[in-house]
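All the exercises in this workshop are built on plain-text protein records. Instead of coordinates, the fold is spelled out as a row of discrete tokens. Once this layout is familiar, the rest of the handout is easier to follow. The record below serves as our worked example for the rest of this section.
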Amino acid sequence: MLRILTLITGLALMAACTQTQVYEPPESLGEFKLRVNYAFADKAVQGPVSRDATPNEWTKAIQNAVDIRLGRYEGTQEYDLGISLEGYMLAPPGIPVIYNPKSTAIVLVNVYDVKKKEFLAKGKQFQVLEDTTGGSALKGSGHERTKEEQMSGLALKIADRVEEWLAEEHKENGWFDKRPDLIQPLESVEVTQNPT
């Protein structure tokens, strides 16, 4: 029993060292610039043992996290993001060590190219789990965090995962490469000869 508790504590401390931070170094996103950040939560399915949360609370949490993470890029090409919360579970207080549920959320993400008037992606699905801290590993998230803390943590994980995904697509598929129509040609100057 002591070995198991030691292992759990060690894993929890390791996880705590790799928590998602609000401000992390930016990714390579080429000419990406966020124009509009849509978030929808009206159709989200709440897990059976979840704490209650309103669609408005979720919308604000997700939009705030996405604005912080993706609103900092200042490229020359505009894109809209739409994130739909499909389901969630905000962990209630459990039984320390024995039953410690983790909060989770499932989202679908759309990326729209404003200039080209077309979607780069529709309905890309992500599931995120909240970060574990030393305290939440032993006591449980429901004892350690308020509902608002759980929601903001999950929203940050969503924004972080979307940011990483966009960087992957940019690297592998050139999503945010500078378009040819934005590369200005050199001006041609007419040269006249002096008749003398």
